[in-house]
Amino acid sequence: MITETANQILNRVVPVCTWQVPGSTNSTGPAYPRFPGVVREWRDFGLDVILNRHFPGGQFPAFPTNTEDLHVEEDAKFRFYSNVISPVVPLLGGALFKHRCIGMLGVSDFKTFHNLRLGNYNLWEIYRYADRAQITDQNFRFIKRILSQVFGEMACNGLHYGILTSYSDTYFLRRSENEPNNLYVSHVFHPDSINPTLRECVFHISHLAINDTYL
User: What global pTM score does this model have?
Assistant: First the structure.
């Protein structure tokens, strides 16, 4: 269970993975930067979800959703698990979502609209400070450390797929071995998104991760 406040989570040090510098016996350097070199649009993610609707049993199971307002991280965590993860897990052939995995750096956590609310902007459009400087929307929220945390944990653990979510807004992430310092991000998806739905997107990226040939 997450017991940290938003400030505690955001102030947590991003895991650092190091590698031995060639020709040295004791010097090490960071294996990856803490922030992606480039953030780009994952252009075909939504279309790929639609074209690959191969759910066991022929359809995605109906499941009721809880639509109460979100106030704290625990609300975001509970809604995402109960409304999205719970109906997806039975379709994954035994694979599970875990808060912490043995042998991996970092732990999963959730964001709220207090630190992740982009409005009509896309993540790849505002990840640089200069791109955010001209935004006048008073409701806009983006803390750079969020992107550092998710990219750092993906890179250090050799992961190629990730999910960044506040439950209200969810982004799907891809990092390829051919461009290990770059991050591809989907358009935002919401709990009421259709064609594809949020559950379908989570099922699809889970399927990609389970069948990742680079692991």
Answer: 0.76
